[in-house]
Amino acid sequence: MKLTFWGAAQQVTGSMYLLELDEDYRILIDCGSDLERSTNGQTPPIDQPTTGFFPFEASSINVVLLTHAHIDHSGNLPNLYREGYEGQILCTEPTYALTNILLQDAASLNSKRINELNGSKKKRVRDKQSQMLKDLFLEKQVRESMESVVPIQFGRKFRLTDSCSVTFIPAGHLLGAAHIVVDVFENGQKKSICFSGDIGRKNYPLLVDPATVPPVDYLVCESTYGNRLHVDQMSPEDALADVIKRTCIDIPGRLIIPSFSVGRTQSLLYTLNRLYTERGFQPIKVFSDSPMGLESTKVYQKNIRQLSKEAREFYEENETIFDFDNFEFLESTKASKAVSDYNEPCIIISSSGMVQGGRVEYHVAANIENPYCTILIIGYCAEGTLGWRLLNGQPTLTIKGEEKQVMANIERIDVFSGHGDRDDLLNFVRMQSPEQLKNVFLVHGETSSMEAFRGTLAEAGYTHVEIPAKGQSYEL
């Protein structure tokens, strides 16, 4: 069989891997959006097609396996169908529900963007309009994608062909996220390969710990945190309690937490509920300002049986996970803007996590010059985003066309990061024997992170480690 790396190769986003079996059967693992829009200076392989959205014929794919819902793993599924794919998508039930929410939101944004492009009178924009519109999927393609999903249970082998089966194994990281093991029988020999997806952390709020992966011959491993450890060693409850006490209790302040709507927001709400229920925190008003966050929370609520043992026990004792005194979801834009008139201490959780787009930009703009406000960054912020500029201490910022002084306090914690760090990644690889494992392929990371993690693996006895380039193929 042949494995080709068409995404997240020497970069973080755009996960997409093509596994071609000898029996002329093609499996696409993940189909993510390339959020970096970069080839890292690489020259595409000479045999890579230059036409069409994908570097392969979409109609030639037999099945898609989806590790989890995040857009950098799922975001191009509608385009795959638009280009001619007619097969099924296999994923867990929660992944299906969360992917539907994320893709519907993306389609809505695409529709607005198309209207803006069509209405533009600038010649430069009109000249580029045709190609830009070609890359934007709409709700119709999302529906077509989601109607083709086949939900797969964790831990049960699903036979794709007479000689190939797949198993989904809990990965942590996000509700429904999976490591995917593909077993293939070719020429009287069994070969197995595991695609890590994104590797979660132990004891992460709401989620189960990453499960053990059985012995495999080949391992495709993400390396987002391959060169670093998480800084904060406190529990999420202790870390958040410390920030709230200093920003909302010791002083009558306001705490703004930019947060991704799917996954991160639910972990925050659950942690706040535990603080109020188990530690006797006074019920400070909490606003969750994200319609997509509300829809995602409903998915978590519906899938309580797939949450961690701790979360299930909390639910049995309190009959709720996300609802508590003085908590309010803000559904309308009017309600969102009205929060500016709330004069008591409060916590505002709003998307997006990088403070780039979304309702959180309004809250930051309205409070950035307030010295009694704290903006708490709880995740990764890409270079150039508003969140990145806040973390880098810029004294003034231009937000929505207005220049503002940064008088609010800027803090950061990483206990809510859903990615395992270097030690977590190493423990994941160590499930495999260095003698049996024929190759490790590092993906989904910056080049420096991959190189550092390759060195870590070499010290642990794993000498066959590859860092594939985009478009590079391997015979397995």
TrEMBL record:
<dbReference type="GO" id="GO:0004521">
    <property type="term" value="F:RNA endonuclease activity"/>
</dbReference>
<dbReference type="Pfam" id="PF07521">
    <property type="entry name" value="RMMBL"/>
</dbReference>
<protein>
    <submittedName>
        <fullName>Beta-lactamase domain protein</fullName>
    </submittedName>
</protein>
<dbReference type="Pfam" id="PF00753">
    <property type="entry name" value="Lactamase_B"/>
</dbReference>
<dbReference type="InterPro" id="IPR022712">
    <property type="entry name" value="Beta_Casp"/>
</dbReference>
<dbReference type="InterPro" id="IPR011108">
    <property type="entry name" value="RMMBL"/>
</dbReference>
<dbReference type="InterPro" id="IPR050698">
    <property type="entry name" value="MBL"/>
</dbReference>
<dbReference type="InterPro" id="IPR001279">
    <property type="entry name" value="Metallo-B-lactamas"/>
</dbReference>
<dbReference type="GO" id="GO:0016787">
    <property type="term" value="F:hydrolase activity"/>
</dbReference>
<keyword id="KW-0378">Hydrolase</keyword>
<dbReference type="Pfam" id="PF10996">
    <property type="entry name" value="Beta-Casp"/>
</dbReference>
<dbReference type="InterPro" id="IPR036866">
    <property type="entry name" value="RibonucZ/Hydroxyglut_hydro"/>
</dbReference>
<feature type="domain" description="Beta-Casp">
    <location>
        <begin position="265"/>
        <end position="390"/>
    </location>
</feature>
<feature type="domain" description="Metallo-beta-lactamase">
    <location>
        <begin position="13"/>
        <end position="260"/>
    </location>
</feature>
